[in-house]
Amino acid sequence: MPNVRRRLEGHVAVVTLSRPEALNAISGEVADELAGALLAAAADPAAWVIVLDADGEKAFCVGADLKERAAMSDAGFMAQRPVFRAAFGAVLALPQPVIAAVHGYALGGGCELALSCDLIVADETAEFGLPETTVGLVPGGGGTQLALRRLGPGRAADLVLTGRRVGAAEAGRIGLADRLVPAGTTGQHAHELAQRIGSNSPISVQNAKRALRQGAGLPLTAGLEVEDSAWRAAAFSADRKEGIAAFVEKREPRWPGASDGGRGGGWGAGE
Ligand code: CO8
Q1: pLDDT for the residue numbered 257
Q2: Which residue in 31, 52, 81, 262 has the most C-beta neighbors within 10 A?
Q3: What does the angle CA 147 – CA 96 – CA 105 come to, to the nearest 5 degrees?
Q4: Is the CB–ligand 1 distance for residue 85 below 6 Å?
């Protein structure tokens, strides 16, 4: 059985962590499969939006597999590092918007996976945390930098330095979760959000994401140059002509910018 599955529903690619018996802990094998699934999704022209979710009742993901690591030498840690970096890097490198659908524990690398996404949908059972300092580590999947950018310096320091867990209500309050939904409905709500985004021009959405991502941390003037390049990419695209024509003709747009002609594709389940 694979530890990571991916499937396409319309234009929404769903990548699922599927190691529920270990609370979706990330072993070297899981990291490798996750990187492969994300690279494939990134390259699929029919995948306009990605949802990252997880199987099982208790956890989105409890982070690195500490049982595997318990037996690991320093050399083993060094060897695993690029495999993990490839997996976390693959989330950040997705050109499409990616939505984390979080239930239960999202700890350590699990929290970092969610932080790597553009939007986080969490249900009432969600518990986030960066407990790395409690096990002699430092968040290494982008956690320090992504928490800093998403939450601001004080809240990032609170999470990273204490390693405490944050429940759903607090996560919503501090901006760690973008949508709070009833228990058991993250999949449905993440999918609705993905479909909403996926109804927009894929060229516009990907370029807007690029502006948001590349602009973070840049001085305003440099950020506005990034926005200008994103604007140009959309403004001189076929999607812009179609989008405005559809508005004037009072009909739904048919986005020609998608290289699959807007048809959508279809991966088999469990691929
Ligand atoms: N790895 C392996 N097994 C785990 C992990 C884990 N991270 N977390 C839980 N488990 C296992 C437990 O050992 C237990 O197994 P068993 O039944 O065989 O004893 C089972 O899952 C259930 O766990 P609990 O009995 O503890 O269940 P509780 O509901 O009481 O508690 C918790 C669940 C809160 C998740 C608790 O188990 C816990 O605190 N786990 C550790 C979480 C943690 O510290 N995660 C951070 C790890 S470090 C990390 O993620 C670094 C990422 C770096 C990325 C680098 C990218 C470049």
Answers
A1: 62
A2: 52
A3: 40
A4: yes
In this predicted structure, what is the pLDDT of residue 265?
36
Locate 4 and state its tokens.
């990571």
Q: Is 130 in the pocket of ligand 1 (CB under 6 A)?
A: no
Write down the mean pLDDT value for the chain.
Answer: 93
Give the pLDDT band (50/70/90) at residue 235: very high
Which secondary-structure segment (H or E) carries 145?
Answer: helix 143-151
Q: What is the percent of the chain where pLDDT is above 70? A: 94
Q: What residues does CATH 1.10.12.10 cover in the chain?
A: 202-254
Q: Are 121 and 101 in contact (CB under 8 A)?
A: yes
Instruction: Evaluate: CB of 171 within 6 angstroms of ligand 1.
Output: no
Q: What's the CATH number for 4-198?
A: 3.90.226.10
Tokens 């403004």 belong to which residue? 235
Determine the distance separating the centroid of ligand 1 and the alpha carbon of 109, expressed in angstroms.
11
217 — pLDDT class (breaks 50, 70, 90) = confident
87, 26 Cβ separation under 8 angstroms: yes
CATH 1.10.12.10 assigned to 202-254: yes
CB 11 within 8 A of CB 46: yes
Ligand 1 atom at shortest distance from the alpha carbon of 132: 48
What mean pLDDT comes out for the span 228-239? 96
In the sheet where 165-167 sits, what is the strand order? 59-61, 105-107, 127-129, 165-167
